[in-house]
Amino acid sequence: MGDVPTPVAGLARIPLEAFAGQCQRSMQPLVDRIDYFSAIALEEDQVRQYLREPADATPRSLLARIPPLRLVLVPYIEKGPTGSNDLVSFERPPHQKVLARSCFALEEAVFLFLAAESQEVADYHYWFYNGVAELATARLDRSEFSRFNLLVADELNRSTRGEVDERSYHLKQKLNRKQRMPGSDTKLMKEYVNQAIEDTLTLYLHGLCCDIDVEPGPRQLASRYVRKRLELLAEIFPPNPGFVVFPAAPRERPEIPIEE
Prior knowledge:
With about 260 residues, this protein is α+β, with helices and mostly antiparallel strands. The protein is built from eight helices and nine strands. It has helices spanning about 15-25, 45-55, 60-65, 120-135, 140-155, 165-180, 185-210, 225-235; strands spanning about 15, 30, 35-40, 70-75, 75-80, 85-90, 100, 100-105, 110-115.
């Protein structure tokens, strides 16, 4: 692909909404219900790695559940000031303001912005699937949420250690400190289960696309419990033809330290 012009010329930092409005007419179809725009020049092999492969692996049953997706690749995303929107940046922001993804709804679609500069393909895939998983988790019906909740409650009653990602790990630690009855129906329990679904769904989607492998450790949920979660999610969002769930291993993810 040739040079890709920026939608708003001459600006180094642009609010996401303004950028979306400018690039909306330049969107190109990717797969059913996903269109894309890239503000950086991509070679054909990069289009395959960054766009077609992860989109092709996303279950169509999941895409049917969420709003149409407008995928936008930009150099960097900068966290906006408190109370305002994030920014597309064509210069690397200060470390504390760097974001890997950001999204917002516009009309009947959701714009998912992903930062592509200085990011490995595996990390990019992670953040793409994490954004999709967040949208899908919010649209599970009551019975689906309840089935996952039962799995997590059983894990807690068995005093399982670890989780599949940082955010659910921290919530699990908080739950264990504050809640005497494991699995009780509380606000904190619902928050933890919701995050556990999002993190596990990210793992499930990433595993459909790529061979991923992370060495197990004391903060990683035991594989037998991860497998039960993945099997349930495969029932809710069956893989597309030609894609398989197993063998599944804990996924590669960005290096994010977990503090006690």
